Amino acid sequence: MFNFDFQKTGIFKATRISSGLAISAISLFKIVFLIVSICFVLLFIFGSLGTGPSNEYNFLLGFGLVFFGISIVCFLIVSFVKNKLFYPDVPEMTPVVNLAEFLSIDTARALDSTIRFSKRKNIFPIGATAFLYFLLKENPKLNFILLRLLLDIKSLEHKLEENLPVQKVQDAFSRGIYSLKFEQAIKDALEISQAKKHKYIEPGDMFLALAKNEPVVGAFLLDADLRPDDVRNSVLWWEEGEEIKKQKKRFWDYDNLSRKGSIGRSWSSSYTITLDEYSIDYNQLVLSEGMQTVIGYEKEIEQVERILSSPEVNNVLLVGEPGVGIENIIKAVAIKSNKGQSYLAVNKEQ
After folding, report:
1. Considering only CA atoms, which of 140, 125, 238 is closest in space to residue 186?
2. Which of 121, 284, 307, 349 is found 20 to 30 A from 13 (Cα to Cα)?
3. Cα angle value 287/148/186 (rounded, 5°)
4. Three-class SS of residue 126?
5. Does the pTM of the predicted model rise above 0.85?
6. What residues have CB less than 8 Å from 285, skipping those under 6 apart?
7. Do 152 and 64 have their domain in common?
8. Three-state SS for 178?
9. Domain boundary at 190, 210, 244, which?
10. What is d(CA 48, CA 58) in angstroms, rounded to the nearest whole number?
11. Contact 338, 258 (CB under 8 A)
């Protein structure tokens, strides 16, 4: 059963409020009042410098503080709307849950634009092509993923625009509001987001699901000699970069502290002068590089870890052409070993 009622969700209200006149005006006033307050304070400073200590220009400072206070109030209102409405609680997964409750604010904005377009053109059911088109339009950050894949963004948007439905359906609700490909894309996006442990269906999750269910994108990737795994790894790489930016602000987290390594661990290892001369210590190498996350190669990394943890045969030989990812696999194992996230026989080993 596909239960998807976008208009009955809190995120739908958030999209309408965020695009409404009130929030736009408050956001504008926040900037305007801040600039005005700075101007009044500067006038007060220059006036005081010219005449010396005097009460003649105190009213300028007073006006500056008043406008600054109004700017702070506007900032708090916008912040409250974003934190309270843009990130609503998601329900528990049940067979009859409304799947639209799991959409993030950025994904919901793209869907809202799609619905507005379909209503304006009287095109039903709403398809995956139109949703993907507006998802790229509303989320410029996704363009960075396409550029990473060396894809022509304008060409893809042009092909999607050419494949937008033009036939008008008079009896919309008898045919269904959403197409079967759209429904399958939502289900796939939810599975992808849950596999990544995302709270909401983010634009990257929705893009992967739509690319999987949209033939136009499949043909476009085939022409560019790309596989679905290439798109998936690019999305993971982009999301990892966004997550790292957020984590760096929380320097006290264990994951951030573990990237710095520790002194005692190096002291506990014996001296290996000959081995150090003719080999590379990847534990120290990944520490010096900040233990950047390796994207992809999950199966290969698991195989290497399992062999290294074996009590009998624990030697691994990786063979392959340059550029196939051998060094990335070794670095990934070294990172997991440093963080203590691998097998017990591998963790913290030199």
Report:
1. 125
2. 121
3. 100
4. strand
5. no
6. 331, 334
7. no
8. strand
9. 244
10. 9
11. yes
